[in-house]
Each structure stands twice: as structure tokens, then as C-alpha cells.
Amino acid sequence: MGENAGWELPEEGSPEEERLAELFGSILGTDGREVLRELRAQGADLGALAASAGMPSDPATLQAMVAQVQRMLAASGDDPVNWGVAHDVARQAAVEGGDPSIGEGRARTATQALAVAELWLDAATDLPPAGGPARAWSRSEWVEATLPTWRILTEPVAASMSSAFAEALRDQLPEGLDPFSGGEGLPGLPGGATGPDVLLRRLGSAVFGLQVGQGAGTLAREVFGGTDIGLPLLAEPGTVLVPANVDAYAEGQSVPPEEVRLFLALREAA
Prior knowledge:
Helix content: 55-70%
Oligomer: single chain
Radius of gyration: 26 Å
Shape: elongated
Structural class: mainly alpha
Strand order of the largest sheet: 1-2
Mean pLDDT: 76
């Protein structure tokens, strides 16, 4: 039996046919039974189609995947970025490779380095103090603290891009599918969506959520504090070190770890 044997057409009237018809209906937004009748009439090889598209060989797996996408689209709402997706993806990406908790000793070492950096800068330069508390965060805590700023930075861009895509789609659609022309729109869209522009906005919201979440989570494994990328990611004044990233960076250097920590603290405080 081939790897896509699960895609053989079931017998007419069987429970398997009913489930497959529901699957096609959920994907295509049309009558799944009619799709099956046309496939039978054409002698379609579903296994070959599934293999060429890189789809799962098990229809149940594909149905679960489709349901997950539909839930994601339905949950996107009207926000230009799906922040639920962004949060979940960022947290998952941040802990790849581990996210050790910060004990009292590590936190004290980090905040002391930041305090020494502030004192040195105050004596040696004319730079004003950073102000606010000195903190030590895990990678997950860095994600939680910076996501509100990512929202401020990315939502205007995401909204503009979604509007541009929707306008471009509108120009390409037949009149009957133009969501602004009074047509009925596309059938079967999740979450009450009644037109392709709504689907595109929700899809864009989910995609932007994935991108922002992956970006924030990846940065959480690489940054040393709150100022590494040159943008003010902290909502309130203060200085931060991420001990896990500082220690990982210090391991590859030829100088003592405490000197690396102090250097990074100086850069953060400045």
C-alpha cells in the first residue's frame, strides 16, 4: 500500500465518504459531495494529488490542519496583527534551547553590574543616568516585557500592507466576488467573513502575528538587554540584562566573564 493510500476514494454512502465530503467542504467552501462526484467521474487519483502538493497522507491529519488554520483565521479579528499568535510563537521561540530561570544569585550579579556601570558612567561621562530600576530577565520575561512595544512599532506597517493587499485583490476579482460591489462574496469563510478582502485581512493578521512572534522570540535568545537593536523596547525607563545570553556570549570570549558582563552593562546603561 502506498504512502498516500489513505486518499483512496471511499465507497459511496459510507461514513468515510461523509467525512471526506466535510473535509472538501471546509477547504473549498462548497458542496463536498459534489466535489466527490466530479472526482469519481474524472477518475482522479487523490493519492497522487496529495503527494504532489506535499499534503499529509492521512485525511484526518489534513482535516486537523485545516481546522487549526480556520481557528487561527477566525481568532484574528480586525487587528492588523494577531497578537495571540505572536505571543505564543514568541514564547515558543524564546525557549528553544532552554530558558533557565534566574535565581537570586544570578539576578544580584546582573543588577550589581548595571549599578557599577551607572556609577562609572556618571563619573567618567556627561551622559545622564538611565533612570529606573536595574533588572535581570529570563528570555521569556524579555518577550513579555517587549511585546507591547512591538505592537506599537508593527501595527501601522501591518495595517498599511493589509490595506494595500486588499485593494490589489479587489482590482483583480470578478465583479461578482468584489466585496464592495454588493456580491455575496466567497462561501465558507471562517469567523463570519463574507468577502475575500476580509479573508485576506485575517490571513495577513495571522501571518504578521507569526512573523512578529518569531522575530521577538529569536531576539530573546540573542539580545543582552533592552537596547541592543537601537530601538526603545522598554515601556518604562530602566536597565536590563538577560543573564542566559550574557553568559552564553562570555563563554566564547578570552576575557573573564565578569569583565564581559560589565562591558555589556556599560553598553546597556549608556
